[in-house]
From TrEMBL, chains A, B:
Record-annotated HTH merR-type domain positions: 1-70
Record flagged with keyword DNA-binding: yes
Entries under Pfam families matching the protein: MerR_1 (PF13411)
Keyword DNA-binding recorded: yes
Name recorded for this polypeptide: MerR HTH family regulatory protein
PROSITE patterns: HTH_MERR_2
Keyword tags: DNA-binding
Molecular-function GO terms, alphabetical: DNA binding; DNA-binding transcription factor activity
């Protein structure tokens, strides 16, 4: 199909499509003549994935590019789960403190988790604790044990879903990791607001404690 | 203090400080003479909060502005919890489908939650379901019941924390909502990656199912 049809079917403007190609998120179309390029259904599927990561997952274009590159890595037929996870977390500007890393690792040990030292989530979680400390709000870290129990339920469901797609081929499994990880964060954030309202109503009789 | 000292103590460049003032995230300093402005500890605290939302919470400057405006709202002494939540979720471009809204509302009802129709989390979660459908991956919605159980644990811990700061005054309580909501999403995302690695090791013997 021509770029105009690709734009119409994907809902992405021709200018954005050209930009995604130049930024390396989308493979170039096939040149079929002077000033004419042809795109296929793979381009359409890829564009839908890019839009999902950016518009619903809230990723920047740069982060979406990193996530897709990790999922495309041919050395990892099902997508490099940890690589995708790393790329989809906000980049941590400075290494977190040893104290915060130790506190998060302690929580993991108490849950009986097997997590290697370089796990990007460990670094991201420790960076949040550092920020609580810098804001003088160490008390907020009291949520850690409850959050750890919660994400255990989440991770079990996540790995269940990945397991079920192992037979569907590498493209499907990689998509599961990308979509399930990035959009899964957005799904959790949405459900969390719903549960917060409900819990606030239960305790204070109103959706807001004010 | 002068802007140079504020920049040094906050780790934010003078140019960024001026930009945050012009964008309305940070109150202007006090003019103390020709071409000279004075800032105080409130500016420093506010800058640390802004940096946390953007660098660790992964918010855009525009989203951070919305979150701070909701928390500053004088009609809501403890911050407008739902307003803050809404501002900190990625904006949903188009209204989600009635079918996805119904599916998410069904999950909430099965959990016994009290959630009003306009809850921003409900809209955000339904938008994710729509995206799963558009990508031909309706199977990913199978995680919904497990995610709902998980966020119930999260919300209980969140409201516990807010309850404990109700006596500390409106500024502290508003900060709890802002920091706890936005950085809490980042903390959950980090812990989720750790639990995913652990669950993957438990089932596949490796951190990645490839």
């Amino acid at each position: 199909m021509r770029i105009a049809e690709l734009a119409e079917r994907s809902g992405v403007s021709a200018a954005s499509i050209k930009w995604y190609v130049s930024e390396g998120l989308l493979p170039a179309g096939e040149r079929t003549g002077y000033n004419q390029t042809s795109y296929d259904d793979d381009h359409l599927a890829r564009l839908r994935l890019i839009r999902s990561l950016i518009e619903v997952g809230g990723l920047s274009v740069a982060a979406a590019k990193d996530v897709l590159a990790a999922a495309d890595d041919p050395d990892h037929p099902f997508g490099n789960t940890l690589g995708v996870a790393q790329a989809s977390l906000p980049r941590v500007a400075a290494p977190p403190s040893a104290e915060s890393l130790r506190r998060v690792a302690d929580v993991a040990r108490r849950q009986g988790w097997t997590v290697h030292d370089g796990n990007p989530g460990l670094v991201a979680a420790a960076a949040v604790l550092d920020r609580y400390l810098a804001l003088g709000r160490d008390d907020l870290a009291a949520v850690l044990p409850a959050y750890a129990r919660a994400v255990e339920l989440v991770a079990e469901a996540d790995i269940d879903t990945i397991s079920k797609t192992l037979d569907a081929g590498p493209a499907t499994a990689a998509q599961t990791v990308v979509v399930g990880t990035v959009l899964g964060d957005a799904l959790l954030a949405g459900l969390r607001r719903m549960a917060q309202e409900s819990e606030s109503v239960r305790r204070f009789g109103t959706g807001s404690p004010s």
